[in-house]
């Protein structure tokens, strides 16, 4: 089947097997190996990307289902060499160790901040319940998300992903 | 140039590693590809014990994109036997351990056929087309049944399911007295049987391996903790010359002991690539990882503690059964032996006896998992100390205090024969109690009991130590381990003054690049940013013993320090020449050489100046080689003994059995700290894994030997929503066994936390008649324990609850 | 893991979808949000010949009012249900239960209709649908028909959907002014319910005037705790009255035994959680 998908701002048109998972399309066809596969049952969340502005587990979406959609991966967050504030916060708060869960954690964190720009600790923990990390015990991840929230004013999600608007997002204040 | 003033060691440096990890610019093995790369898939036995009677791969071979299909028979002659490097006794029984079963399968998940195809999708399709007939054999699952007379056998040719029995007796060793005498004369006896459930390491990155055969040379990339050991073992197992094998561990996504292995998958990928002469990659699915990568723990502990009525312990007897699974893996037999020295923990037992029998069952082999032997031991002794306190109606912390080694008694040689170099259990405990508000929580507990609240409060204590930093080659030799415990490092001074550090300790999330940079920055007086750490490639890092057992800092980093010393010694000769001074008159400080006593304004040459001068080599002193590069191999005299006090408060809902952690305080003493941020992170992660053992995780098999917790929907790795916020702090008692004063930290949190949580659960409901709840303390188990006294409800043999029972639905 | 190959079609109208489904034969499967189906396909626990994707049929999506009835398109995602003001106002119980489904990513893709048609007795939306007297409108080659929730769920993962039929919308009487709570009991946040209780009550003059209680994972199908409802009606909203009524919660249930719970424990939990669900509902 022929699909057309915009991934990290670039439009791709490809023939794919209907059974191809979105995550495999991203990794194997587009070389977007920043998005990883951690399980078979959509429990771990490592493959989280944004599909039309909302977080999804790309192992549980078929590439054909993404036809006509916009996908943002971890590789599409930084703008002009500047990290997304959530990426920066993960670094600043030592919110990763091995880093395998990190792309999915960051993508889900951005989504959660889009829905709730000022989450308390419980809200962050619940917002990340679909993402597993085996290294950090989550404490610094929670801290990073709240730190990012404090530094972002314009919200996250689709806003933060729009090319050219990263300054506003990173800027703080209203 | 400006030298670093503030020492790097001790600074909370943000990690160098993060840049690529937060941007998705990682090099996981599965991210790598090669021209013409083929993909391998593995067909695994669905049965735990069976003879293979017929294998038909003809349909699979016909499928599009399929390059080759191999069965056990096809690879039998060249696969060798997977290595076991720890023959714990001279008479240990070790069955042949094939990477792919030839005529019999001994655990569900064992490889029975492999497919190589153009794509992973085509390989997966071909697996479905393979037809194998089996003839069932009796399944051996329960350890006690396995060692009984007339038991069915996992390996009929061995004639028994017992692999080895290993004994330590303090009377025989001369480190203590006779334990049976202590027991006979005991005023109080605490006898308990505890079960260490089987766990699954569940590192986040599934294992992956890629092999590129280029002429005579093989390059193997693997998500492994042990590239160096793997290279040696491949050479020894597959009769391929060691110098023709290069192993690379690129970015590795967690290990926790689970990637401390020479795996069947690595061997099979190697064999298949060699046979085909083409690059081949295999990446496991999560289900395969859970099923077939080695498991951890799985012990049955029969324990007898003798004491006086004042709470003074007089003896400890430990009788273990340890489940090896179907085969002995790399260090599997030695895992319970690492625990042998830790049951006595921080306490002054006069008499101690440890007997462990390693047992074969038709389950996935077990091997190292974070803590490896020491969490099991720590759990047992810390649970016993709480039981002793309850028996004597004493405060659990007071009982520990009565028996622990006082800080002025260090160095202290224990009843197990280890010499603890340093520690201050009083200080860590005092700090923990303060942070925990111990007395206030005890008061609340009393009130809740009095009111008969639905939700009861429990307080659990764990005052732990561990032996880590594996370690002294001499000791490992005495324990019959096949290798040493040294570590290697090299430092290369580049002409522009930048520094490359080569370490043999291969990280998988720990932050070596940052910590080693800090250490070298201090040692050589160069900026943190000017240091690059190279690791995980046997071509660049040619010598190493890799990462496990909390050894990287206490062994590997000391080798780095020693290599830096050698660089400075070489540089001093050149610097003296440049300063036109005698070498003995030159001193090195803050990255520069000066004539001693010449004052701060005097001429100096920086180490970078020296590096450039050596590169040019135009004017070197007589007989001096134009090279500052140096290497060192460090073999410590002793293990490292971090310790700490963990306090946990749980709320137990007595109506449902649900446990909620309300407060968790961990005060750890890991000696001097290179990077407090990294140390804290290690503690957090360790706590999460230890708590997961206490409350959530268990690998469960049904009566046929099928793993019913075969996905992350059934094997419950906790999420952020399931864990509390931790309060962590440190005391700092420097190690005396290494020049940095550091101790290991990687396993501490895991070792300490499990008993703290279970002690808290039991404490919450002890007044309701509960003295034990088996791990994991599920709501069902806790509720049953309260209402019927049964401690192991819903245990072995059950269906996993929930999960993908869900095969039908339509939409 | 990787699904077996299948054909795929994404019709844009219900009529086309129904036609595609009946033409594709019995090995075809409908995919809604796919959040249960895709893991099953990846594990190769099912290998349909063809997937009929309902994701591109606009008429299946959205929430609207139809007189005294609330109508939710089958393909409305959990995320949309959670945030829909009409659902909050007229079917609060469904919103509460939807809040607890899986995790945020899954809620972005998963759909109400998909969950109901999947008919996992541990699924969280079946009991609310049953308790709220939902009517499920299905379409097939023979036209549309409405199936009451009481007749829709027939067994573990089995519904009264006939071959070739598609669930199109969920119709609920309005429960305007009712308070509600979904009390879920599981071992970790993203796990399925061991037991859960869906409770909605309407209070008049401090007396429980109406009550609806549904149980999750207490039988092969969701269970309506009618005895509890009867016991609650007319009672004062006091802890004693609620606890006493909740004692009837296990009546008529037939739960299974697994590693997380046995029959006795599940029935015990049903009573405890019913009491808590009703209490929490009353305090909303």
TrEMBL record, chain A:
Keyword list, A-Z: 2Fe-2S, Iron, Iron-sulfur, Metal-binding, Oxidoreductase
According to the record, the residues making up region (Disordered) are: 152-174
User: CDD domains recorded for this chain?
Assistant: fer2
Where do the 2Fe-2S ferredoxin-type domain residues begin and end? 1-77
UniProt lists compositionally biased (Polar residues) regions at 165-174
One Gene Ontology term of the molecular function aspect: 2 iron, 2 sulfur cluster binding
Q: A Pfam family matched by this chain, by name?
A: Fer2
Organism superkingdom: Bacteria
Give the pathway annotation. Alkaloid degradation; nicotine degradation
- Name of the molecule in the record: Carbon monoxide dehydrogenase
TrEMBL record, chain B:
Q: What is this protein's record name?
A: Carbon monoxide dehydrogenase
Keywords recorded for this protein, A-Z? Molybdenum, Oxidoreductase
SUPFAM superfamilies in UniProt = CO dehydrogenase molybdoprotein N-domain-like, Molybdenum cofactor-binding domain
> In this entry, which stretches build a coiled coil?
none
Q: Does the keyword 4Fe-4S apply?
A: no
Outline the segment boundaries, as ranges, of region: Disordered: 792-811
- Necessary cofactors: Mo-molybdopterin cytosine dinucleotide
Q: Report the superkingdom from the record.
A: Bacteria
Keyword presence, Oxidoreductase:
yes
TrEMBL record, chain C:
One Pfam family, short name: CO_deh_flav_C
Please name the GO terms that the record assigns under molecular function. FAD binding; oxidoreductase activity
Membrane-spanning parts? none
Residue ranges of domain FAD-binding PCMH-type in the record: 1-177
Instruction: Name the UniProt key words of this record, in alphabetical order.
Output: FAD, Flavoprotein, Oxidoreductase
List the PANTHER family hit by this protein, alphabetically: XANTHINE DEHYDROGENASE SUBUNIT C-RELATED
Q: What is this protein called?
A: Carbon monoxide dehydrogenase
